[in-house]
Amino acid sequence: AKWFVYIEADTSISWLNLLLLLKRLDSNKPLYFGAQNVIGETTFGHGGSGFVVSNAAAKKLEGLQQRDGKAFVEKWEKITSESCCGDEIVARALVEVNVHLMPAWPLIQGETVATIDWTQRHWCTPAVTWHHVSPNEIDTMWKFQKGWVDEKGWKTPYLYKDVFQHFVDQHIRVNRTDWINISQDWKFEKPSSADSSFEDSVSDHSDVNRGKPFSKLDEDEQRSVNSFDECAVACLNKEDCKQYMWEPGRCRLGRDIRLGRSEEKGGMGVRSGWMQDRVEDFGRSLEPCQPNWKFG
């Protein structure tokens, strides 16, 4: 084998884009690449996102095993039994033969179509992997790839922008009720607001109300918590805001485009919307879009 590709059961992989990527690389060089993660002092390719080891890199590791024999096996069995993660162990072993991870994000990455931030960092890059994907989503992505190959052949990669246009664009052209679109760059809420249905989608609460007393916010920011329409106005008044999310007493605004997910539990009435003209302007601003294969 020229290449060894590691993925997990909930990884969706584009064989088209993977094969086109590997054609650009030399398996006779000791290569190890994937989406970077860190545990302690070890930088490794995240297994759920997928990682790739070249034949030359694997042979270097095999050479070490042949040299050390039983001691090699005993050493790594012990280390593996004490570690949480097999992907981290692979990196530690490869480091011993001087093969270090080449970060390959965002070609290889760990988000889903629903959670990824659709930004300039991704837009013109071929999409190789997705993580935390359900069996149904894997099947849907496979059908998308098959349709792409049937139309364009095996020499034209599809980019993140193509995935966006196929899976996301149609769903964000309307406002959605009982929907969390993961807006998280501005967070406004009344001090008396009860528990939120979308609190778990916001990773950092330290910047609620921009760190100010609610009464010190701009007028449109204060009004944003009163209604979905006022939340939309607050987004409109911020030049780089592309989406918003509201429930009684809370408004969240986002710079990046995200699809998000349905949220019907609790009956809190979370609503989400997107600034259509800004979403369209964003896509147009990145044309013409040439495949970006750079990593490392």
From TrEMBL:
EC number, as in UniProt: 2.4.1.122
A Pfam family annotated for this UniProt entry: Fringe
Source species taxonomy: Eukaryota, Fungi, Dikarya, Ascomycota, Pezizomycotina
Pathway info: Protein modification; protein glycosylation
Membrane-protein topology: Single-pass type II membrane protein
Keywords: Glycosyltransferase, Membrane, Nucleotide-binding, Signal-anchor, Transferase, Transmembrane, Transmembrane helix
Primary site of residence: membrane
Protein name per Swiss-Prot or TrEMBL: N-acetylgalactosaminide beta-1,3-galactosyltransferase
Signal peptide: none
Region (Disordered): 192-219
UniProt superkingdom: Eukaryota
Family matches, as Gene3D superfamilies: 3.90.550.50
Cross-referenced InterPro entries: C1GALT1/C1GALT1_chp1, Fringe-like_glycosylTrfase
Entry GO MF terms: glycoprotein-N-acetylgalactosamine 3-beta-galactosyltransferase activity; nucleotide binding
Domain Fringe-like glycosyltransferase residue range list: 2-85
Subcellular location: Membrane
Similarity-based family: Belongs to the glycosyltransferase 31 family. Beta3-Gal-T subfamily.
GO cellular component, one term: membrane
